[in-house]
Structure formats: C-alpha cells, structure tokens
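Entry: Helix-turn-helix transcriptional regulator
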Amino acid sequence: MATTPIVLERPMPNSQNYFYIIGYPVCYATPTKQLLPVESELPIGLIQGIDLDAKGRYCITFKGHKKFVLTAKKVLNTWTNPDNIPVTDLLATDGYQLDTELVAPLSRSAQFTELLATILPLKAPLTTLPSHYIVVDCEFGWLFKKTATGQTINWQQTTIAGAHTSIYQLSALGFNQTQSTSVYFNRYLDNPYFLLAKKLTGLRETGQTLTDYEQQSNPVTVLRAFIATVLTPGLPLVFWDQRNDLQNLQWLLAYHYQDLTPAEQAIITTPIQVFDCEKYTNQVINRSSNQQLTTVHDLPLNGVAGLLNIVNPKQHNALWDALTIHHVMRQLAAIRATEPTILTAPQRPQPTQIPSLTKAQHVHQLRAAGKTYREIALALGISISGVNYILKKSATTE
C-alpha cells in the first residue's frame, strides 16, 4: 500500500494554493478548482517524486533539479493513491479539475524556448550589496480569453505561450548608495487578454484619456522605453524576488522580440547582473541559524518592511514597492554591518547571603520585641542570668 503522497497542497500567502503532483508541473487552483500551471515554476520542469525524509519533511524532486523541501506545517493537504487510480480521478473526488494536457506549456515551440533562453541572461549572482543600482518591480494581471455563447460573453483564464499572467505595471528607480538618481520609470501595459478592470485601473492611476493610455501602454512602446531607461545603463538590477518578476520580464521581451530594433535586441540579450533582496534577507536572518545553507524563509516584502518600521502607503503598486525594496535593503545592510549580540548561557541566580546575628544581637532583638528574660532564655537556650548579663553589660557599655 502506498504511504507517501502523490499530491501535496501548499498554502500560499495572498494567492491561490500550489499543488505538487507527480508527473505534472507545479499548479495553482483557481476559484472554480481548475488546476493550472504556475508560470514562474515552469522552468524547473515536471515533478518526479514526493518522499518523506527522516525528519518527516516532504522532499519534492524535479527533473534535473535538486530537491525542494517542505516541512509538515507548510503542507495543507496530501493525497495518497493506495488503489493506483488515475490522478485526475483521485483529485476529481475533491472537485479539482486536472487537465491531462497540463504538460503542454512545457513543450512550447522550440524556437520560442530557444529565444527565451537568450533574453536577459544572468552573470554570476551578486552576493554583496551593489553601491549603484536600479530597483525593478512588477505587478501582474491574469490572462483571459473571451468566449461567446449566443448573447452571453464569458471570460475564461487562458495560457499564451506558456504564460497565464503578464506584466501589468513595470517600475524602476535608480539609486547611488542612499541617493536617488535620474532613473525613474513607471509604466502600465495594456493587453487584450486582461480583464476590462485592469484597463480601468490603469486609466485611474495615470489620469490619461483612453486614446493616450492605449498608446502609452502599448507593450512594445513600454518595452522600448524600459530598454532605453533601465537596461542601457548596464547597472545591476535589484529585485525583491527575481524569480517571478525576471521570468515574466524575460517572457514579455521574448514575446515582442521581433518588434524591437536590432540595437534593442542586442541590449536584451546582453548578460545582466542581478541582486535578489529576498535572498539577502535570508542571509541576514540566517547568520544566527544552525542551518544557514538550507533555511529559506520566503518572506513578503511589505511584511519585512513592517518589521523594520518602514510603512509603504501603497502596497502592491510597483513604483511604491520598488522604493520599499530600496529602503528595506539599506536597513538590512545596516543591520548586517552591526556587530551582533552573541548570547552566553543563562546563569542560575546565586542565593543572597544574609549575615547571621550574634547571640548578643539576638538577645537585644528579642528584648526590643517585648520578650521577657525567661522567654528570651528559652528561645536562645541560655540561662536567665546569661540574658541579664548581656543586657546589663550592654547598658554599662553605653
């Protein structure tokens, strides 16, 4: 009988839960319980196995990649398959719709896959905070396709060239140490596969007319401006978590590659340096950890900002988040540069030594409390004459 799970459900903050299913890419669940691939996780491939290690952690292996480990508290549900039924039927018992063609996004056209691999290739990762850099942040919109049945129009989530989301807001701010530079970029992108609500939000945020907004938010127009303003200087790019932002940016540049000039194509295929602020946060936290190489915290930007007493009034706005990344990074650098307080073992408190009274002091103490000579003699185990001697001697001395 199978005892290890073939499916794990992992709760994710501020998004749909992730599903790890053997034989499939990492998926997320829509509100209608459809399981769709997570675009940012597609490059790591299909899940090959799920095992329990000696510590009771779930070890998820991907083709050609090392294991990804989840502790039990990070797993919401598991499914085992003792009867060896199709996984689609297993999940259907709980109402989840698993498309047997889910692996299709992994088999994009060979030409697009090859092109995508050449867009913004990475140099060796930066391990120290750069002094002169550009912070980049993105906001995303889900992709939908419109279907019509008679007089009814429906919008259904869709996948285009392997992507189910695309960049909706693209922002960048330049800094030299703590000082702002001339790099200031904040653009919205229009997309026929976005819901109308995205366009209405863009119109409200920019204050533009519909005609101006559609011209200025054309993806090719935005990408050309981004290349000229952000990529041309050749400075390191700082992300909070480079995985999702950078992969979506690479996808968008690859998707519109043919619309760019040869000079622009040359720039976007030139290797770049990237500094990942979330990984830097882990380095600062893990300097006190006994498992520095394995502990990953996956902390949200604005959560870390709150811990550092930094308030972002417009969270999940790419421009404001880019500014937040900068301030969080500088404060983390200051913390890391500060000599840590290294604790020593707790010490058991020592009992207080109370000096003992002499017999004469006891006599005077009891006499002052109103005790008779006899009572004092009985209490201290001496004779009445002895009590009398002590008290008279004291009086004579005084």
